[in-house]
Amino acid sequence: MTKAPEPSPIPTAIRERRQRVQSAETGMAVLKGLAHLGGRSSLTALSAHVAESPAKVHRYLASLMEEGLVLQDAVSQHYYLGTEAIQIGLAAMRQADPIRAAEPSLIRLRESLEVTCFVAVMGNKGPTIVRFEEPGLPVTVNVRAGSVMSMLWSATGRAFLGLLDESRVLALAEQELAVSPEDMRATLDAKDPIGQLRREVQEARCASVKDTYLRGISAVAAPVYDYAGRVCAVLTALGATGGFDPAIDGPIATAVRQEARAASAILGHGDGRGA
Amino acid sequence: MTKAPEPSPIPTAIRERRQRVQSAETGMAVLKGLAHLGGRSSLTALSAHVAESPAKVHRYLASLMEEGLVLQDAVSQHYYLGTEAIQIGLAAMRQADPIRAAEPSLIRLRESLEVTCFVAVMGNKGPTIVRFEEPGLPVTVNVRAGSVMSMLWSATGRAFLGLLDESRVLALAEQELAVSPEDMRATLDAKDPIGQLRREVQEARCASVKDTYLRGISAVAAPVYDYAGRVCAVLTALGATGGFDPAIDGPIATAVRQEARAASAILGHGDGRGA
Questions:
Q1: How far is residue B14 from each of residues A60, A177, B268, measured CA to CA in Å?
Q2: Residue B272 clears pLDDT 60, i.e. is over it
Q3: Hey, is the C-beta of B250 within 8 angstroms of any chain A C-beta?
């Protein structure tokens, strides 16, 4: 790792700036600009987008073409992103990690709402907690990192059930339903217990439970999507029923949904870019 | 469009070089290097890969981080591709066009083998020719750009049938089989006509026909894959039976497969990078 050569009186911001490379940053801004414009643009539109002169942008495009990141259409003269840009994206997608992406969200939920919260992914046994955060005065629950949650009775499981369209998810829910006590089955729709549950989750874009999975515990859970629009994780907040509002339009559910969207954005889900 | 300011005695190569931006190219080389290493690397390994000093690469990485393309893992200190790199890849994928990607392959096949060749995609009516190339002395065939080919009896259709796993592809083949004359059905496996055909194509990674679809015409067809590993087009060469070798290990099939791979590489399929 290189270090700043020696202690210096130059302010940090300027020193850091000097350690970077201005033209490389302009080149990256041109590359990002082309992506923000949908991957294809005229020189005029791209120059306007990055707020540089066409002559300057043209030189940077020549460099991007030299490196195989950009091609020029012979007919329209438009520039568009090429194969090397696909390869960079594919490599970046391989690095996209829902656990890492959701970590700042867990911290913010813990700090702002003082709730226990966690990230779960679909493991081979079911929804599995992979990252767990507790506030200073935690509520006592018997789940932790590594715990496999109920597909049917936990908010986490229901978020996967409603929004992750995979046959094994449905199969797990049906297995659980078959062995559930009568009083719990009675809380679900009589005709189409799983289908109705899924529709509710799909409509609310989150799942909420009160005392169904852990006695005295309520929870809300929202999906984290990857670049391909697939649910790759679920973000859940929980607390003691009574002190915790599990309403799907309440402040906790709103915050959990918002943080799940933030984690999804880090994973490349949705453009979310101003046109 | 900017132009070179005036006629100049400087050789073109040097003039073009001056119109580019060296540091932007180095920045792109660092970005591509990180992608080639799987999207994550130590400074040491990345510096070795791009053959630049760690101090220099570190400065470029600072710029890539500034632009949101690269992140640094706080624990391992490794650098990895971030959200902006995913967005660039997604935009590039939207631009990836199998017809444009296969065009150089069509020209090369026409020139080197003097065969009629074309690119087809799955249209809503079936495999549809979208780009058609003929040699100087073409064989007369009644297909052209816009023609919809048989799913079951053309080499093009069989390549889709064997390698594109979509229910509508299978449905089209079954419809055609139901209305095929007995003598043509007799050329297929008696017990599992479509299943056996698919397995043959899957094994050969190409499809070959002789007189089945157009009398007196033989053809070989190979799949073009996109970045997601899905068959997005089929590349086909055809000629008059007798003067055209449709053997799946013959020189024409070998060339068609090779050109289909070249077109797939342009679309981001497979890494194909030396480790």
A1: 16, 73, 31
A2: no
A3: no
